[in-house]
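Dear support,

We are seeing what looks like truncated structure output for some complexes. This example has two components. We would appreciate it if you could run it in full and send us the complete token output so we can diff it against ours.
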Amino acid sequence: FAQMGKLGKKARKFAKKNLQSVEKKNRKQKPFLKRKFAKRDGRRDAEDEEEEEKMIEQPLKKRCIEESPKDIVIDAVFDKDEGVVVLDCGDSDSDGYLAEVLFLTWRFDSAVVNGTQGKISGTELKKQSRKLARLNKKKLVDETDSDTTKHKVLSGSALSSFSNLVDEEQSVQALTSLLNWYRAACHYGHEPSGITSPDTCYDIEDSETFANVMIFVLQKADHTFRSILGLSGSANKEKVLKLNNNNPKWDSVKPLIKSFFRSTIHLVKQAADLEITVFALAQLRVSVVFFAAFPDLLNKLIKLSVDLWVTGEETLSHQAFLILKDISMVFNSECFDACFVNMYKAFLHDCDIPKANSEKRLPLLRDSLVELCSQDMQKSYTKASVSITQLAKLLKMALATKNKEAVEKIHSEHYTSCLDLWVSFIAANVQGNDLQSLLYTVIQVINGVATLFIGPRYLLLRVKCIQWLNHLSRASGIFIPIASLVLDMLEYKTTNDGEKQKKKFEAVSTVKLPKNWLKSQNFQEQCIFSVIELLANHFAQWSFHISFPELATISIMRLKNFNERSTMEGLKRVVKRFIEQVELNIEFVQMKRDEAAFSPNDQQAIETFLQLEKRSKTAPYTQYYQNIVDKGLGTKVKK
Amino acid sequence: MGKNRRKDKAIPPPQLPPEVREEEIEFSDEDVKYVEENKDYARFVSRIDTTAINRQCVGEAKTVEDKYEEERSKKKVQQEEKESNEIQVDPVDVLPVKTLDGKLHFRTVTKKSKLAEADPEEAEEDVLEDEHILNKSQRRAKAKKSKKEAKKQETEVPEEIIQEEETPQAAVLAEVKEELSAEESFENKKNRLAELGMLLLSDPEANIRSLKEMLDISKDENAKIVKLCLLSVLAVFKDIIPGYRIRLPTDKELEMKVSKEVKKTRFYESTLLKAYKSYLQKLMAFERQSVYNQVANRCICTLLDAKPHFNFRDNLLTAVVRNISSPDEVVRRLCCSTIRSLFSNEGKHGGELTVQAVRLIADQVKSQNCQLHPNSIEVFMSIRFDEDIGKRDREEANKKKFKKNDKRNNQEEQNQAQENERKKSKREMMSKIRDEVNADYRGVTFEPDAMERRKMQTETLSAVFETYFRILRKTMFSVGESSTEEDTTLNPGAFGPHPLLAPCLDGLGKFTQQLDLDYIGDLMNYLKKLASSSSVSTTKKKNSKLLTVSERLRCCLVAFKVMRSNLNALNVDLQDFFVQLYNLLLEYRPGRDSGEVLAESLKIMLCDDRHQDMQKAAAFVKRLATFALCFGCAESMSALVTLKNLLQRNVKCRNLLENDAGGGSVSGSIAKYQPYATDPNLSGAFASVLWELNLLTKHYHPAISTMAGTISNMNTSQNQTFLSAVTPQQAFADYSLLKESFEPKSESRKLNNKRKRESGGEGEDVPETDMVELKKKLKENFTILRGIKVDERVRMEFEKKKQSNMAKKKPTKKQSNVEKKKPKSPKSKKKF
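Here is the complete output from our reference environment:
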């Protein structure tokens, strides 16, 4: 089988023509082989998982300094099982496809011939198909010189009659030929021109018919399959799998479904037009359940969807994601793994290549990945834990040794995107799940990253870190002090003259700003705006907490200091306004708490303190903060 | 090795040497051609020429025997034709062939006598003489052609022959030789070094002369060899240098008749010393060359570290101190660690080097105007000042020399007086000879008596403090008058504005015990000024001369340490330092300032302070709580630990834990809390409540949240006597990110899958596809595809036609294919 794949086209042609027994044998063996491979792969998957876990546990026990930063990989954490999946896809892609398709089409060919004559029933068809196919082929080869009637052209009228048959009687024969036409349509123009395969006989009369057959099949196929099989609309996977056993209906429909899937996947792969792809994907999604019977096709679908998810335009990406999500929900956990690992890798890989719209796209991808993770917390927790441990290990090494390689790895897009992903994941699921230890580790990692990179050039990274912390704090309701991290940025302006020469890392990265920006006024504004926005966010979270005045004390003092020294009027005004607002709120809280009769250790009373005001959202500070968020002071002006 | 070779020699020569002999005699044109033709052979020739013939023959015969044979037979023919004048040639030529055919030993043996003309003496001598020496001489001959130790004639002879007879060949040969020798000689020299070294180590007395030879190798041009040489000589010296200082005999002593043994020893010592001296000279010279800088420094440091008692140590020390602030980090570290080890292992040199080193460093600080690497001062931290030196021998001398320390030491001295008396009488009883010997001995011994050591220690101390005060004064000066002129003239070098201040303050903090009371007043004034030289409040903005927060914290720290170690003997008001600390808490920045120093200040100034003002304590409690809200785990934790400590010791401060309207009875003069007050006594902290603790219980770090919880639940009424054992420093270290394990604990957890699918809502987010639009697109798609298809088909047909035209005989099937497609194409063409 593997060797077959290597043979050239000519050889294959030759074989098809002259060595039909071999072909036949191949056909017989193929499904068997495949199943065997699939099984083995599945098992290997499980083993790899265990192995990998062991492997990760071990180095943890060692001291991290013994390792080189090269050993710590972010994206390839789940590489092993993932690799198998990809390989699997590749294999099934190679040679088998054509043979299988040929096989199908021959059969359909004969089926159509016979079906229109109405002499052979659907069940018999299966048994005789192989023989017929061979005969048919011979016949075809013999006949072609004289007989061109085998060349079929689908006309609009034929289509409508077929579709009626399918619609009203759920006729398998009609569906078969429709699917055949559908296949031809899907492959239209993509068929390798050199091969004189029998399906060149299928031709489509005009564009109208082409569109109709596509739309009809895509829309109705799932429904028809279900009604033939007698399944309700919400058939789950178990039901579909049960069908496998000696159900004559299933036997007759299975190849049809397979053909449908194959054709559709091909269509999705090839279709240049966005809407067609989206539509086809959407229709395919409805019948995702049936993929249970075709594991290799499923793998193909996963791979395809991941590709589309990462690279596709927004709606397409979303549609692809929905398919992935469905797959991971409907099927077993291995599928979830496959989906997740592929998506995770694709996501991180995508982060590496900066694109024009990546600012918009990456969050979308991240969010959808988080959504997927949230489907299976048990699995995702392990994955997150493993991945975060890797991040932490790298960071720890960088902190301890200042190893240049490790440090560079940390301020890569890879690292930050990965961190970003898990931050979102934790933030999304922290309520209702016990994620405390993950949360804690991630916070420490972020703190570590923030302290590892000091200096104005890492402004963006610093801002990102603080945003993460704010995000986590908001989502979980715990207190994460960020003031000192933020206030560092105030000093950037004054220090950068002296410290500029000290920056040694020259590598250009999106995380790091080029040197020449640092002097620009824009940069300084940027610093201050970010400070204000981040602090405002932090304060907004605790603006009604009883210790707000103390929380703001040091920050206000620093800001006041800054205002005294600063020479830029525009900035001073913004800062001044912020100080005023915060001080107003301080006064407000102070006034309220002076009235309070409870002590700091009275948790319950404090919990209820100012809760009413918090909900009302009319407090001046809340409005001020809202205003800042709307303006997006810090985040808007990135360049 | 040597033995084996000798044995080898004994057996095989019969076969080959004749060849050699013959060559040696005549180098004709054919030979030259020959050599050029066969480079392998040329190599052989070159070797023969230069080295002992015997060995060469053995080696060659073994390795390229076959070639040898061919060559020999060829040569035979040639030579037989031309040269008949050589009597030796013919028989010898005949011989090898015969020997190769059958192993006719006897014949060769007879011939051996003839060939023996060349190297017989040597062989015989070799056998007779001591193997050891022979080995050496032979190897030397091989290894160092350049040396030309003319002991062996036969080595010279071939060289001469080459030069004389084969001038055309010489160039080629020389090249080949060079190529060969580059690698070989490197290996040889290495081996030579190793051999010599081993010899010296195994029996230094006998082989002391080889030191010189080893040293000579360092003249080599190859840097690698030189480095190797330096290092191996270092190893030798490290091993053979005696445990005493060598004193060369005076002229008078030389005149005296001495035994053989003594003579031998004297010779040994003087040779050693000479070699050592020249080695050191070399090192000093190399140290100035950038290539050898590191190696030379390594040697110097190792020597000084290992043999600090030996002659010429002063020179070594000077070199080390000179490099103590070297820009090369490796060198600097080496030097610093050497000096440190000198300080901490005074037993090796009796403390003399300590004094010298400190003195030298002090001089260097002075000459460099305090612009040195901090490491150069940090080494002082390793000096140990022994309070008990000379307890036994402390006498009147003590009083003279340590007037300043009298106050502290008087008591001890009186206790010791009696004991000393006894000792003194004992010593008086010692014989004169003994005294003389002692006097002599002291010159070389490392155990100077206590007086001596005292004296040295005083000198050390004065040098250390001189350095420290110099730095302080310098800093004061630059801070006080940080006008523009200063900035330009004293523009800090690579070491920052006050490179030595931090280690200086650390040192002062450590040696407060030894500090003279007279100086303390001045010192405190200095510190006060330095501590209050705020970088924020001053109007000069970009003044890099100002002290950093850490430095100012250090000043406060030192002041406290000084006061504490002197039992608070002086009436110095430390209030100012508290004020500084109070304000520095707000200025602290984690990345920029050292958290360790902060934690230490918290510990020394707040936790250890015995009698605290209540107001002040409350002010600090409040500020620490506020501080904990803004900073990372480590800082927060150390602040909380201090806070807890303060609360535990000050009952009244616990009022802050309760929301007592109006601040209760202790509210003090200020009715309202002033968070930004600069003076702790004026902050009105008693009017506040520690609300921060509540927010801190929500801290993400479990330890901090627990800590805050415990503190807020402290009992206000009863006096809790036990104090927590954790110090702020400990807390800071434990909770810093570096210590963080970063391992998510995988305990059992509750995880809710969001598996409850909102199946209804799923469809909503899918945008509805516009069917009409879709249809249109599909149609377009079809049209395009068909266009492509048709195009392709036409092209294919065209090509096929062309093919069929070219090759007229075509299988029918293909033709039929073409025919089959023909009807299709017009159809499709029609459509468009």
